[in-house]
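pasting for the record
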Amino acid sequence: MIQTMRRAVVLLATTALAVTGLLLVAPTAQAARAAQTANVPTVYVDTTGGYYRTNYAGAPVTPSSGSAAWSAVNGSGSHTIGAFTTTEVVDPLNPLNNFVDSGQGEIRGRGNYTWKTLPLLHTFSAWTQSQGGVTFSSSAVSKRPYQLKLSAGRDVLGMGSGKTWILLANHGDASLIRNKVAQDLAAEYGLPYTPQSRFVDLVVNGEYLGNYLLTEKVHEGGRRVPLKDPGAVLVEMDNNYCDTEPSALRWRSPSGNCFVLSDANNGDIPDPTVSGGSITLPAHVQAGWDAFKAKVTAFEAALNAKDWNTVQSLIDVDSFVKYYFIYEFTENPEISRSSIYFWMDASVNSKLNAGPTWDFDSSLGTYTDPTYGGNASVLYVRNIGTYRSGLMWYQDLFKMSQYTAAATTLYQTQLKLPTEESVVKVGRYTALMSASANKNFQRWRILGGRTLFPPFQNSYSSTWQGEVNKVTSFMQRRISLLNATYAPGISATASDCKTVAATAAIPAAGAFNPLDPCRMLDTRTGNGAPSGAVAANGEVSLKVTGRGGIPATGVSAVLLNVTVANPTGTGTISAYPAGANPGETTNLSFVANQVVANQVTVKVGDGGVVKLKNSAGGSVHVIADVAGFYVDGATTEAGAFQAMAPVRILDTTKAGSTFVRVPGNGTIDLPVVSAASGVPATAGSVDLNVTAVNPASDGHISVYPTGARPNPIVSNANFKNGQTVANAVTVKLGTDGKVTLENGGTGAVDLKVDVNGYFLGGTATQSGMFVPLAPARILDSRTGVGMPKGDFSAGTPRMLNNFEVVPLKVAGAGGVNATTAGAVVMNMTIANPTQVGYLTVFPTGTVRPQVSSINFTQWQDIPNLVTVKLGTGGSVNLYNMNAGQTNLVSDVAGYYIK
C-alpha cells in the first residue's frame, strides 16, 4: 500500500453547505486542560495505580503512587518497566482533535542511545572527558523518549487509529526537526508505511517535559505495517544491538549483517520469557522468517555476481531507490548499522521491500566527522564502505548500471521536486513550533553547549533558529549534490514550462486542449520574463504560444492560474491580449503582503503574447501556471469557446449603474447576452470574473443560471468584512441570457463582473467542447462527501493533513460524464486551514508539478476556479502544501469532452 493519503478523522460541522462562516465544533469529550503553547498540541499523561515489568508475561503489579511509578519507569535501565496511565490530548488549533483517554494505558521508556546512554551522560564523566573534555549535568541530559500505549486504538491528531505511539525526545537534535523532515519526505516519495508524526508538548504528572515528536510506531497491525500474508515479516537490520536478541529472532546474512525479526503477520511473535529467553516461533512465522533469510542470501549472491536480472527479480527496485534517496539526502549514518527495516508480504508482492524509514536524529549534519555523514559534499550511502562498515547493499547496487539508471530516472521524474521543497517545509515547521521550541530550551538548556552525541567536540548554536539554519544549509548542499549527480542540466525549477512547438490534439475551432500543468511565468526566478518584481503600474509581457505544449499558432486563448506574491501595496492584476486595451477589467485584487491566486482565461494577442498589468501603488511578483488552451477559428460546434478581449458588464460602484450595491441576502439578475457585452444569443455559458468589493459583513457570492437556483446553494467567492475578493466563474446562462449573483452575507456588497468569453449553446458532443452543469458539490471533507477510500472508509469526514495527497474521483460525479469527460471545471474552496499554505490540483497518475491552485493563510476561507485535466481513472490529485490541516470543498461547474 503506497500511502498517498495521510490518515485523519477530524469532523467539522457547519449549518450551511455554502463555504462561509465555518466553525469548529467541539467534540463530546471536551478537553479540560489548556495547551502549553499556541500552535502545538499538548499530550498530558498521568501515571496511576502502579508499575510492572513489560517483558514478563503475567508480571505482578507493584502498587504505588503516580510519582513512584514514574520514577520506576525512568529508573529502568532497559526500559522494561511500564506504568499505568491516563492520557489527554489538547489541540489549540483544532478542538476536534481533543480527547481524554481515561482507560488504563501504559507508558514506558524506549530507544537505545537515547534511553540507555544519553540521559546518563552525567554519570560517565571519565568517558566524556576522554572524548571531548566535557562533563554534563543531569538537568541538561535527562530528557527521555517514551512509548505511550492508550487503553484502546484512537485517532490521534489526524494520524488515524492506533493504540501504541512513540514520543521522540529529539534531545540530541537541537533543531528538533530532523526526524520530521525525513519522515515527511519519505511519505511524499510514496514509500509504503512511512510513520506519520506531529510536534507536541509533553506534560507528565503536571511536569512540563518539552517539545516531542509524537509518531506512529513501526510495527505490524492496523494501518502501520499491515502484514496480511501468513508468512509476512518485518525485519530490522541491527548491527549494533543484534546479539542482545533471542537466538530465534536474529540471523547473520552471508555478508555478516545481523537481522532481527521485528514483527510478523498478526504480531505472532511470542514475548521472551524468564526461561532464558527461549522462543519457539509459530510455523507460519518461522516459514516467513526462513523465506526472508533465503531471499537475502540469494540477493547478496546476485549482488556479488552483479547479476541485475536476478537482483530485480528479488527486490522491489522502486522501494529500494526511494529508501536510498531518503538516507542519501539526509546522509544518515544509521544506514549501515541499525534501525534499517525491510518487509516481505506475498499479499503485496513476493519481493524484498525496503522500509519503513526510522531514526534520523543523527542525520543532516549532526556530526562533522565524515565517517558519520558530516561531509555534505559527498555521496555517502552510495559509497558507505569508504566511511563505515556494515550494510554494503547500496554500494554494490550502484556498481550495476541498470540500478543507477533506475535511480536517476526516478529521481528526475518523481523525487526531485519533493526533495527540493523539503527546505520550504522547514520554514513551515519552524513557524508552527517556534513557541514550543523556545519553551523546550528554557526547560533543557543545551543551546550553546557541547553536542550530546560523541565525541562531544562540537557545540550547538546559541539559539534554536541557529540550529534550524544549520540543518537548512546542510539540506541545500545535499540538494545541490543530488541534482548535480542525478539531474545534471535540469534546472531547479523542473516544473517550468519547456519551449516546445506542439500540435493541438483536438484541432476543432473553439476546442479546449487540457495540459499537464506547468509554470509558465515566475518573475521571482526569471521564468517566462526578466527576473524582478513588476513595478507599480507596470506590466509584464508573457509569451504563451510555443511553450508548455501550446502550439505556436492557431490558439485563441489560454487558461492560466495567476498568483501574486510579495505585493508592497494594494492593487489589482488585469490580464488582456497584447495589442488590446485592458480598460477597467481586473482578474485579481490584493493588499500588501498578500499571496492570492485566480484562474484567468485570456485571449492571445499579438505575437502569441498576453499582458499582465499591475494596477497598484507598489511592486508585485507575478506567477502563472498553464492549464490548457483553446483552438482559434470560426466556432460552430455546441460547447465551442469564443475568446474575447475582457469586457466589464457590471460595476455597482459606478454612478448611473443599472444595478446598485447588493443588500445582505439580495440578488442581481444580470443580463449577459447583449450587444454591449458582445455575447450573442447563441451562447450557452460564459467565462466571467466576479469581484466582491467592500462587503459590509463576512459572506459569499453565489453565481448561477437565472431561474435555476441550485439546492443546496454553492459559493463562488468568499470574503471577509471589508475585503475585496475576485474569482473566476464559469456558469451556464439562464432565463433571457442572464445569470444571478446572490449575496450570501448579511451586509451589503458591491460587485464587478467582467466577461472573458463564451461557449456556444446546444448539446456538446465533439471532443474539446464544454458541457456546462448545474453547480454540484462533489467533495466536502467536512461531511465526507467525495472523500475517497484509503486509510479510512470512503466517505469519512476528515481534514486533509500536512503535505497529504488525496485523490478525487471526478468522472461520474456531479453530472460529469463517466466515460467522455477529459477535463473538469471546479470551484475549489479551502476552509479553516490551521496554517499557511497552498493547494495543488493535478491529474492522477502524473508527477506532481510545482504549481499552485489556491494560496491561503491561517484560518482563511478562500475559493478559486480550477480547470484540470482528468488523470488515471477519471480522477485528480489534491496536494495540501500546509504544515497543518485544512478542509476542502469542490463544486463542479462543467467538463470538457475528451
